[in-house]
Amino acid sequence: MPLTRMGQILALSCLLGLAACGQQEVYGDLPESQANEAVAALRQADVDATKKMAGEGRWSIAVAPEDFAHAVEVLDARGLPGDHFASLGEVFEKKGFVSSPVEERARLIYGLSQELSHTVSEIDGVVQARVHLAIPEPDPLSNTMKPSSAAVFVKYRPGYDLRSETGAIKSLVTNSIEGLAYDRVSVVMVPGRPTPPASTAIGGAAAPWIAAGLGFFGLGGLGAALFLRRSPAQRRAAHGSAPDEPRSLTGTAR
């Protein structure tokens, strides 16, 4: 028996409600420590987030589809997931043929930059940190040594005024690079965006339950519409009751 228009509408509502129960991946292929930090930051912002294993030692984080945009904004404001910085051991890992002196020098400068960026990013309140090194190559035909220099970029979270740490950061970089003078290190600090407020839309921890409730409500309504669509005889048969006895047109004999 074909569905009524009301039944078709209820069926569509049911399907939409059940589809809303799924989650959308925000980031994947993360180490567990970064996944835990991201989930904790999202839950602090009233976004219900979960982590799922995405391989051996790798994890992904997911939220409800209606919370996806807000989750990306929250993690971006917190600088999460954190950047991966290569260590000197990774930079100088032996692969393939022997490197040339020029390549070895470039690797050394890059490795030092990565190590310093990682160290500065560990300061409380730092969202993002970069250290750029300019170390001139010695000229064997010149008696004058060109001075090295360094530039440090720091973006920090609102509420953490790190400008008072400028001197400590300059000292850290100066003492990490041989021959680098203190006054040849520049530090630029900029405040990051504040964490966006929680979305006013229905979402968070209640969204999956609301979506599930709508789905089951749609199923119940669809079942009721199909039941009422049956004939009286079919409804009685479904309840297991006997059909009504035909009434006699004549009275009982006396």
From TrEMBL:
Residues in the signal sequence: 1-19
Predominant location category: membrane
Name this polypeptide is given: Lipoprotein
Biological source species: Novosphingobium beihaiensis
Top-level taxonomic group: Bacteria
Localization per Swiss-Prot or TrEMBL: Cell outer membrane
Keywords linked to the UniProt accession: Cell outer membrane, Lipoprotein, Membrane, Palmitate, Signal, Transmembrane, Transmembrane helix
Membrane topology, from the record: Lipid-anchor
